Amino acid sequence: MNKGILNFLSIILISAHSYGQKFFMPEGITYKKLENGFRYYIVPNGEPGKIGIYLLSDTGSFVEKQEERGVAHFLEHMVFKGSKNYPGNETSEALERMGLRIGRDYNGSVNDTHTEYRVFIPENNKETLKQTLRLMNDWCFNLQMDSTDLEVEKKVVIEEIKLRRGGGTPFVIGTYLEGHNGLGSKEQINSVTSKDVKDFYHKYYTADQLALVIYGKVDEKKVSRYIHKLYGKLPRATDKTDNKYLDLSRETIVNGNYQNENSEMLVLGFKTRDFPVVDLPSYKKDLIYKVFCEMLENRINQLSNSDLERVRANIAVPFTGNLWFNFRLEAKKDASYNNMLKNFNYVIAQARRFGFLQEEINFFVNKLLKRYTSALGSADNYFGAAQLHFFKGEMPISTQDKVKYTQEIANTITPRDFIEVLNSFTDLNKTILFDKHANAFQAGFNEAYILGAIKQIDKNTKVAPYQFSEPSNQFEIRNNTNLPEVRIENLNPKSIKKKVKLGDYLYLLEYDNGIKVVVNNAPNSQTQIKIVSKHGLNNIPEKDRALFKFTADYLDEAFGDYNQEEARDLRRKLRVYKNLELGNTDYELQLKGSNQNFQQLIKVFNLIVNNQPQLKVDEVQKRIDRFYKSPNNSNDTYQGYTNKILGKGLDTPSIEKPIIDENIIGRFLEYNQWFKRSLKDAYIYVGGELPEDVDELISTYIATIQPVVFNTKIDETQPPLKTEKPAIKDISWNKKSTKSSFMFASVSSKPITFKDQLISEGIAEYGYKRMFQILRKKYGYVYSLGASSHTNVSKNLSALSIRYIVEDEANVEAAQKAMIDEVLYPMSQGELSDDDTTIIKALLEKDYVASFYETDRVSSDYLRWGLDYGKLYTMKDFQKMVRKISKEDIERYMKRLINLEAYFILVQK
């Protein structure tokens, strides 16, 4: 048999096999649909240390009729106001006892198409997980919706309405949803009754319209059994609510009142029904639609002598069930809508007459393929895919499978695949938007003219064949195959002296030369390399601090055998971003990249840290002169006082127009080497979705850096600012509101321990809670408030800052009195209930366990604790320390720290 025929038959067989298969739920996702219609998903690759629990409703604000506006959002507020098994305040109190704070750890939100309730809890706490599932179960079917709570919540929602601007999406212009932003109006909210909310709740919060997503590491079998036990009892829905969202494709709308803030625009939307991607035919259809829009966008943008400044075309899904071929045509100066429409029609007529070209199809399919291929090294976002499966029925697809399916389609797709959509899409019902007050508008540009012109597209015979050229403004998709190679000498890797496991995704590498590298390969962690050092400006002479702090960031703009321009170009192409933080007692040098460029990132890191730059006096002088002329060169009075109270303040002389000479340059270059390379006094952090040979790369390009000694005896610090009585300092901050910060500091005769730090943070959280209860809920004096703690190990100092902002000047004195009498005084007496102790410890466990792998925490704070306390703790260490803290420990520490005989109030007004 002819070889060509064999190849042809093999393609047919492969395609027939693929097209006969449906997509299945990827391995790793647990998905079940209970008999009552309730669905749940367990997605294990969440953020390490944290479990996200999401209760999803496929009901959003766009199910609302005109008289129901705002009810979906109002109902979301009522979820936290009590239920059958958690009446009244018991819902919020139960969440609080688990260490969860509204906004940060739990919240709800409503958009056009769905409602989401989310709770984030720490790993390895079975009771907290069960309690959360019980709470959410009550939210599904057992809300109380007390009429008193309803009236209180109306005020909250109305305040939200005042703050939010915008009149909804333009996709619904011309329908009963026009202008609907999800909140409703003040009048509509005031007219909402308890019956309205309950009716909405019972109609839309049924088992078949709800789903649960658990995102994180759990015992899947045990959790599945518990979900079946709880949620299997929810009653099956008796009334079907199919097609609850408006079908936009049923009518054509032409509207001349559309105004775009940025340009005069003609919007052409061709409307059909959306479809889920569940098998290869639907995957191919989705790909054809995407490529179809990209090809038309490219052709229209390349049209010569047009009235179009820019065109954007895409497949839009305005909301559930709807799909648009969406074209947004921006006008040039002196353009007319008539000509813009003619330009669009010309391109469509051209494509219909001559067809799309194979080379342009190949280009845009391969562009999509490159995008998927470049993401192969990243973890798949199965959480978002699970949500999409619930809302739309779309099957989650791994990036690897996207590459496979797209490659298969790329090998077989032809211009014939686009004929049907090309010839039929303009026959669909349309939404056409323009501004009849714009300069582009001319009399006669109306519905009849527009629809008639589109209907006559095929009669446009004066069209020439299209010559394909690539888009001029395309964004280059980078991957391992087109990254520039960093020029660096061959290095022999150092041997690893010790490898210590610190967590499931975290470990420490130690080397004989004193270098210590903490490696974090947790899923979805940011790719970066960072030096965190215990040295700071306090280790160099006073006369050099201000200038060196400004100059330090410019010292390594050239490195290796790259000059300044070449080095900048290399970093730009590799997308390597440098950041330097230099404080009085700390130094951090950070390089950020991506998981595609890690090998090049670590080489650049080696070159920068090993770099011994040469600086010219005149270049440094010019930069410094510009700095001192800039308006940003001013001191922060509030921060200055805070630093002094915390023992972090240093005297930095004010220098005007400094004269730079070779001696200054020489000292600065020496300081630069000390800060970068005093690696025995630092940790190096390496994080990201790292390659398998990461240890070898670290041993080659980090461990081979020769550490230096920070060669100065200077360790200048100032003692904490003390006061023998309450001291008030007024500070101007040029705002109408008034911010009051109550600051307490206590120096111990014993060394500060990590347990002390934990207790101090717990007290800050307790202070925040007390403020919220008294100043916010009881009196309504304040809207914004905050609390934080600080420990200065070198000074044996613990400090606390509790602060709030008062908007109404008339409440400033009353708020201060209530703060002292009802918040701080009980704290100074060590008054603490058993419930308060439980909450404090739960808050600490939540922060130190659930947030353990958060990039800012593990790449900075975690390493500083290691430098301060001489040990890198594990997640289990944190959990044990928190659980061993007693009520007496907190009371004792709080009485010592909250001293009402001696504290500071910084008042900014």
Automatic annotation (TrEMBL):
Required co-factors: Zn(2+)
Family in the record: Belongs to the peptidase M16 family.
Residues of the Peptidase M16 N-terminal domain: 55-162
Gene Ontology biological process terms from the UniProt entry: proteolysis
SUPFAM superfamilies linked: LuxS/MPP-like metallohydrolase (SSF63411)
Stretches assigned to the Peptidase M16 C-terminal domain: 191-362, 681-824
The protein's name: Insulinase family protein
Gene3D superfamilies xref list: Metalloenzyme, LuxS/M16 peptidase-like (3.30.830.10)
GO MF terms, alphabetically ordered: metal ion binding; metalloendopeptidase activity
